[in-house]
Amino acid sequence: MPVMLNFAGDDAAIVLESGGKKYLIVSDLHLGYEVELAREGIHFPNQLPNILERLLKLLENHRVDALMLLGDVKHRVAGVSWRESRQVVDLLQAVKGMVGEVIITPGNHDAGIMSLAGEMARVVSGRGIGIGEAWMLHGHCWPPPQAADAKIIIIGHTHPVISLARGPGSRRKVFLVMKAPRSRVVKMLSSKMGGASAAGLRGQVTLLVMPHFNNALQGVELSQLLSGGRSVSPLLRSGVFGLSDASVLMLDGSRLGSVEWYVRSGELW
Questions:
Q1: Distance between CA atoms of 236 and 225, rounded to whole angstroms?
Q2: Which fold has domain 3-267?
Q3: Hey, which residues does 157 pair with through a beta bridge?
């Protein structure tokens, strides 16, 4: 089924429409992140009230049928802290009455999320879920070959940001959009995961990288993403999607330029 995407406008969220249903999509809540900061001697306020206020506002404004959480709902990688468990439950309880369904595709920080979610959310595979012509996953692992049948793959995990000026407080979250020939995406996923796409080899696949929803996270500068590393999604490390040619979009969907243009401009500062 065809999909339609709309940017939320002033927050790190998108609205996807497919099959007569609307989905609000956000990624990387990292609930409990302030606990890790406290261990390092940095005392930061509990981010749940801010996250929940913004999330409820988005749900109210866009009147969606479902909420899609693209992984890293919680922050601790191994196990679950008491504060994380409380925050995850509080958030799901607060949103469940505003949407017909909450869907979670787990990320690499989501150990124990199925137990925490209980009956409040549907937890699907970490390799993602297909809705219409879109395939969505957190992005820390490879999606299955059928993801290459989609017109668009949507991931989080990467936390892209830009700096509009030097100094603190100048960072801004951004979306990244890039394309690759479907034939190359099919070949890549078949070699990594086995199996094959059913849609053939024609056309292109778009990859949309979402920014993090938690405002306490610093994010990753685009120049750091170009250098690769284990924290970058394997879909980007593969080289199939040209990260340097990716379009940098502000939260309202307006195009700033390409990643390569932005990085080169920064070198002139």
A1: 9
A2: Purple Acid Phosphatase; chain A, domain 2 (3.60.21)
A3: none
Instruction: Give me the torsion for CA of 47, 51, 56, 61, rounded to 10°.
Output: 140
Does residue 175 sit in helix, strand or coil?
strand
Q: State the SS3 of 76-107.
A: CCCCCCHHHHHHHHHHHHHHCCCCCEEEECCC
pLDDT tens readout for residues 64-107: 999 999 999 998 877 777 788 899 999 999 998 899 999 999 99
Whether residue 205 contacts residue 188, with contact meaning beta carbons closer than 8 Å, is answered with no
| Beta-bridge partners for 205 | 180
82 alpha carbon, distance to own chain's centre: 25
Structure tokens at 267: 């070198």
Place of tokens 């297909």: 130
Q: Is the pTM value of this prediction over 0.70?
A: yes
> 166: helix, coil or strand?
coil
| Lookup: tokens for 114 | 């199925």
d(C-alpha 16, C-alpha 198), whole Å: 23
| Segment (H or E) for 173 | strand 171-173
H-helix or E-strand spanning residue 3: strand 3-7
DSSP 248: E
Nearest to 124 by CA among 3, 240, 135: 135
At 40, phi and psi to the nearest 5? Answer: -95, 10
